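Morning!

As promised:
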Amino acid sequence: MSQRIPIVDADIHERAQYEDLLAYLDEPFRSYIKDCNWIQEKHMPYVQPTVAGLDRADAVLPDGSPAGSNLHFMQEQLLDDIGHEIGILTGALDPSPSSMHGWYEMAAALATAYNDWQIENWLEKDERIYGSVHVAAQDRDAAIKEIERVGNHPKMLQVMLPMDDIMWGDPYYHPVFEAAEKHDLIIGMHHNEPPVYYGKWPRYFIEWHSMISTTHMKQVTNMIFNGVFEKYPNLGVMMIEGGFTFVPHLMWKLDQQYRDLRNEVPWVKEKPSNIMKKHFRFTTQPAEELTKKEFMSIIEQMGTDEMLCFSTDYPHFDYDSPTRSLPNLDSDLKEKLFYKNARAFYPKLSNR
Amino acid sequence: MSQRIPIVDADIHERAQYEDLLAYLDEPFRSYIKDCNWIQEKHMPYVQPTVAGLDRADAVLPDGSPAGSNLHFMQEQLLDDIGHEIGILTGALDPSPSSMHGWYEMAAALATAYNDWQIENWLEKDERIYGSVHVAAQDRDAAIKEIERVGNHPKMLQVMLPMDDIMWGDPYYHPVFEAAEKHDLIIGMHHNEPPVYYGKWPRYFIEWHSMISTTHMKQVTNMIFNGVFEKYPNLGVMMIEGGFTFVPHLMWKLDQQYRDLRNEVPWVKEKPSNIMKKHFRFTTQPAEELTKKEFMSIIEQMGTDEMLCFSTDYPHFDYDSPTRSLPNLDSDLKEKLFYKNARAFYPKLSNR
């Protein structure tokens, strides 16, 4: 075990069941769930890839509870087994509160309950586990209040924003970024239902799942050209679970377009690829099967080895093992991917 | 001039004005345009990048007629100047007939008139000029009739399908592919209004324009997983004006997903990257500014130098010059990019 390098895992999906949240929910929202069996809107039309839905079947608990819902099971199956130094929880309340299309007060109450549940049952129970502030950002001001409320928790590393039908670069949402920056939090972005196409689902899960990277590309582009990083020069964004092999294309493309069309967005003061290098990190999962040569060609095309951060995506079906999902890279690069890049990027980890 | 290599230009936008089409339009559609000043729906909310809109200002005719609307001007500015061997017209009737959201009969009548105008005024006036069959594919059966009507013209190389709110892999549209294949035509795909996001435009043209590649990625993915190429093993698709640096990512991603999830789409019999290599070509424009090393790394990642075909996109503002848009590549590769790949891919050019 002593030869293992530390692992900072930027994407672990712990899961709350509704009954877990009841004790943390205010009335009347508690009763709507407890007595009326209300559940959040869900849309995905597909049969999902495993008998556990999107999860690894072996991560489901012996009593049938969903994968990711139990600390001890996760400790045993993931943290102890792999030897994580740090695991960053990114949540799984279906869907994210920020994705609810109505009743924003319920969404905000759920986010609050979720954060309290997360702090009490995870962040304060295992020193390796860090967390994410969940918000209902469609109600921007409620989201800011929630960030003010729990954002100073020493183990809260980021504010989660889902990729759904909102493009987060819209100036209406900038105060959310301001609040995050103020509390030494970054933004964690993770797709939820997109990529749907014109609001319609593609016919197959494999299509939908293949195109997740396109949604990541759109949000990065949107945030850059809407001037988020000129307004919040210390803000970081972790793009979670979209992979990374699209990054060279995106850097070249945005630089090209910036050269041609920057007059339209005079508030963008730098080449987009430089903004990306400073302000964005991309988690490695789901890592495509690359040879070392292919992997290194991506690093070379990006012009930096500091943009990628390892993640497992536990307990999802396409979990990436730290020993098997990437080619056998040189030690310096491995250290950056597996812990140095993430430690440097999350303000609250950067003093470690 | 003799040292120039032949150039096959896979994307030239000739433009019809409505008055050009009147002579080719049947009643009552002719009168709706002539007497009622009907025009097609247009949505793009942005000021566009040049004083000529999306066009090169120097391609506008001296009398103010739009860029691309006059054969002699195009001959002089493009074909003679560059020394094109072949220029393939892809059209510009705003928007494509296949993008009209209602009154499909008018859309089909416009497509028919456009094709007749194109044949008489372009294809039969210059031996270098080849063309595209325009259809209103939202009325599938009307589209098939139009392909039957003009698809055998020796200079018609492809059927144009716009990328809009239809995902063309949907089995409803497969008979269009069948008709194309039967007439030795390929499909030419070109974005129209996407990438809009959930049906909404991003705030800025630069965002919209940067993300065109994501729409190309979605259509390729959709066609592959909907089994188009198992049904039509000789069908080719030219992805036009989306660039190419996203292609390695897409190949890796689709192969990865196919390994994980192919049980969902058992009709897909081959690795998606192999399907792409056989059935798809990508035009080079708008080529990002790549060094030779970067360009070659993309070729290496794709595993083939036969997937890219040069295009200028004349007369659009981001026109690519054959001498200045690509790095100084070795002769073999240049020959493939500039003419061999395209000649081999269009059935009607492959005997040349």
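Chain A touches chain B through 59 residues (CB under 8 Å).

Hope this helps with the figure draft.
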